[in-house]
Amino acid sequence: MSEVDVQEAIDFVAENHRAVMVTNGPRGVQTSPITVGTDGEKPVISSRETAFKVRNLERDPHVVLCIFTDDFFGPWKQIEGRAEIVHLPEAMELLVDYYRSIRGEHPDWDEYRQVMEKEKRVLIKVTVERVGPTKQG
Fold first, then answer.
1. CA distance linking residue 17 with residue 34, whole number of Å
2. Has residue 1 got a pLDDT over 60?
3. Could you tell me the residue range of the domain that residue 130 belongs to?
4. Exposed/middle/buried for 92, CB within 10 Å: 0-12, 13-18, 19+?
5. With bands split at pLDDT 50, 70 and 90, how would you rate the model's confidence at 137?
6. Which residues contact 124 (CB under 8 A, 6 or more apart)?
7. Is the pTM of this model over 0.85?
8. CATH code for the domain of 77
9. What is the pLDDT of residues 108-135, one digit of tens each?
10. Cα–Cα nearest to 83, from 113, 114, 51, 119
């Protein structure tokens, strides 16, 4: 895998935020529809600390993401990698950056931060180890 492949995948994530995450659960694979952003170097995902995907990643950090366009039947990228889970309070500003990378500015950042704490949000950062296959349609 070249640095170009990784950067191409990160650029795709920066423009396309719909994805499916595949993790390894105790009884097999588990899939989760997610919204994915990027910190410029890695795909990033927000989740509740108690979600199955987070528990699965704590046991086995291997993760696969299939990112696709809003059209669904168009270009897509597959990313395989290792997940790092960042918990609150360290995750707070990363969660703010995550929101900004997808939606722009929030109308009330104090409210956003309160919701992140109430929901016990974490940020999942994916170190890309493999990109592909990439197909259309």
1. 8
2. no
3. 3-136
4. middle
5. very low
6. 44, 45, 46, 47, 53, 54, 57, 63, 83, 84, 85, 86
7. yes
8. 2.30.110.10
9. 999 999 999 999 999 999 999 999 866 6
10. 51
